[in-house]
Amino acid sequence: MTHTEAAPRAAMPPPAPEAVKRLLAGWHWLECAIAMTAYVIVSALLVTDVLGREFLGPVLRFVGFDAGGTGIYGSQKIALYAMIIGSFLGLGIATASGVLLLPRIGFGWVPRAWGPHVDRIADVLTGLVVCAIAGYAWIFVQGTREAGTLGAVYDIHIWLIQLVIPIGFLSAGLRYFVFALWPAVRPAPPEFQE
Predict the structure, then answer these.
(1) Are 177 and 123 in contact (CB under 8 A)?
(2) Nearest to 164 by CA among 31, 44, 39
(3) 76-120 pLDDT tens trace
(4) 86 with 42: CB under 8 angstroms?
(5) Whose C-alpha in 32, 130, 176, 185 is 20 to 30 A from the C-alpha of 22?
(6) Quick one: what percent of the chain has pLDDT higher than 90?
(7) Could you give the CA distance from residue 178 to residue 50 in angstroms, rounded to a whole number?
């Protein structure tokens, strides 16, 4: 009997059901699509605003037409809101992609054989912490909603934009719970991290 045959086989976690894999893929695609749209809006608004102020305005003034600043009214504020949406959705995207920065503190403190179990425990603990942050973020959003705070320029209710904060944290936290249940769906860490 060889060494590998003598060693007790570690219980393999169950594979993730296909429905879970499809849900994760769709969830990731939706977050990526919304975040990408938000960043396209940021880019388009800022580029057209600068072009309007720096090129169109002087040309119009040169031909005798005073068009004012010719920048897009409120573009910087709208771009900021879109950036907030893209950034907080990025939490779930980074979690799903396995590209979150990972400090190397504590690596090698437990035997390698315990790794899968420690990873699952770490996923549960991380999920709990991140969901707790989402809970506090929800309290923050509720406070803003109750205060009736409006954004500058367009008088939009700020809590509608802030709502992406708890959503982003909750998205990441729920993924960690899924990783704990079905470790096979956890993304492989990058080869190296900076």
Answers:
(1) yes
(2) 31
(3) 888 999 999 999 999 999 998 888 766 666 667 777 777 678 788
(4) yes
(5) 130
(6) 42
(7) 44
Rounded to whole angstroms, the Cα distance separating 51 from 78 reads: 17
The SS3 call for residue 150 is: strand
Give the integer Cα–Cα distance in Å for 9 and 190.
28
Q: What is the rounded distance in angstroms from the CA atom of residue 171 to the CA atom of residue 90?
A: 10
Contact (Cβ atoms closer than 8 angstroms) between residue 93 and residue 168? no
Helix, strand, coil share of the chain (percent; to 5):
70, 0, 30
Integer angstrom CA distances of residue 166 from 17, 86, 110: 27, 13, 34
CA 172, 173, 176, 182 dihedral sign is: negative
Is the pLDDT at 169 greater than 60? The verdict is yes
The pLDDT assigned to 2 comes to: 42
State pTM to two decimals.
Answer: 0.79
Contacts of 23 (CB under 8 A, 6+ apart): none
Q: What is the Cα–Cα distance from 162 to 43, expressed in whole angstroms?
A: 21
Give the pLDDT confidence score for residue 13 in this predicted structure: 73
18-47 confidence digits (pLDDT tens)? 888 899 999 999 999 999 999 999 999 888
